[in-house]
Amino acid sequence: MSDAENQPLSIVEVQRAVTRELDRIAPVIDDLGRLFAAAGHELALVGGPVRDAMLGRHHVDLDFTTSARPEQTERLLGGWGDALWDMGRDFGTIGCRKGEWTVEVTTYRSESYDPDSRKPDVAYGDSLDGDLGRRDFTVNAMAVRLPGREVEDPHGGVVDLAHRVLRTPGRPEDSFSDDPLRMLRAARFAAQLGFEVAPEVVAAMTAMADRIDIISAERVRDELVKLVLAPHPRRGLSLLVETGLAQRVLPELPALALERDEHHRHKDVYEHTLTVLEQSIDLESRLPGGGPDLVSRLAALMHDVGKPRTRRFLDDGSVTFHHHDVVGAKLTRKRMRALRFSNDEVEAVARLVELHLRFHGYGSGEWTDSAVRRYVRDAGEQLERLHVLTRADCTTRNQRKADRLRRTYDDLEARIARLREQEELDAIRPDLDGNQIMEILGIGPGREVGAAYRHLLEVRLDRGPMTEDEARTALLEWWASRS
């Protein structure tokens, strides 16, 4: 984070920023404010849009709170917006779209958790101040009343925002007891906004870390995803480890803080991992879609999680982590499935973890073209992400070594590019298809066709492209050897 981003803001700067943003979104907020007021209801812009307006950030997704009940809100928005939805009705929320704007209006509410419940009990409130008092942090507990645009800040959110600090409206213990997920949100907002977390909030997170166990895996996953995709994920992840929350939601991360051997002959794996994550983020511009990229960041975060399980000390005091790539891939699949990630995400991240060491067999360019083809084949759709992860995994302070590794990987990528141009490497497949195999061998569909196909693929990887006659000869030789 730059020094400029870390500097406190003046109250005047905050006031100017919010005025500019309210003027920009005036076509929506003024119109809605008049609409609800004419129907006898209160309406206020609230939460993230107010906070970000004070930081000079633009929103097209706007959150409002109101005295109106959901059915009343639905009637008002139905005649105003272009499209309406009510998926959040159980929580008092009605949403709509109007042009480029997405609007969600929620009835004043209060909510709390039963000690053994995974879901909040939602009750409607009767005032804006009461609604703000139940929110997670003071910087999110500010509102702008509409249509008059009066700022409501009963808990000092403007001052906390100016000083870039996260506090809770009341006692943090009460806030986290009501909704334990707020402990993860503290880490997430630290990562998103670059804010410090107040000492009393950190203390409550530490004391109440076990309370996170009642939250569903899906809600935990969603917060972790937002944290990892934030501009400063290291800040949020470090806070999770410091407070003990990571031990309960992502235990593989604190497990990387291995005790150092007496000769200090291996790196601090935990700090190395966070550095690899940051370096991976710096390289995201290389990816086709740019960043932030969830799969790439999770792969960086998980790439060494197999090390604690595979660590061995040798007689000379050195340490090894043999097969930590394979073990790490298994642990990655297990953790991501427990957090309810999609199968595609699980397999993509686990594949990168499994392959992250493969490049180190390249030496100074000793790989044959066959080995390069297999590298591309095994990486498949994750090749560009594997390039990023492998480059990011170099954290040595030895500049000569770092430069050598970079040049060597440049060479590997250049070879891949040449082979791709020569052979259409992205779509490696045998030179004969299944129908041709069956015709040449005089067999029908079955396992033997699959075995023949796989053999021809290996031949293709070893020799490069072949003519149909060459492929036919190779197939018949293999078939004869089986007989």
Structural overview:
The chain is of the alpha+beta class and about 475 residues long. The chain folds into 4 domains: about 1-165, Beta Polymerase, domain 2 (2-Layer Sandwich); about 165-250, Orthogonal Bundle (Hydrophobic Seed Protein), CATH 1.10.110.30; about 255-425, Hypothetical protein af1432, CATH 1.10.3210; about 435-480, no CATH class. It is built from 24 helices and 13 strands. The strands form 4 sheets. A 7-stranded mixed beta sheet has the order 3-4-5-2-1-8-9. Strand 6 (about 110) and strand 7 form a beta hairpin. Helix 17 (about 325-340) runs antiparallel to helix 18 (about 345-355). The radius of gyration is 28 Å and the shape is elongated.
How would you summarize the topology of this molecule?
Layout: H1 3-6, H2 11-24, H3 26-38, E1 43-46, H4 48-54, E2 61-66, H5 70-78, E3 83-85, E4 93-98, E5 101-107, E6 109-112, E7 121-124, H6 128-133, E8 143-146, E9 150-152, H7 157-162, E10 165-166, H8 172-178, H9 181-193, E11 196-197, H10 199-207, H11 217-228, H12 233-243, H13 246-249, H14 269-282, H15 294-302, H16 307-310, E12 312-313, E13 319-320, H17 324-338, H18 343-355, H19 369-379, H20 383-392, H21 399-423, H22 434-441, H23 447-463, H24 468-482
Parallel strand pairs: 2-5, 10-11
Antiparallel strand pairs: 1-2, 1-8, 3-4, 4-5, 6-7, 8-9, 12-13
Helix pairs in contact: 2-4, 9-11, 9-12, 14-15, 14-20, 15-18, 15-20, 17-18, 19-21, 23-24
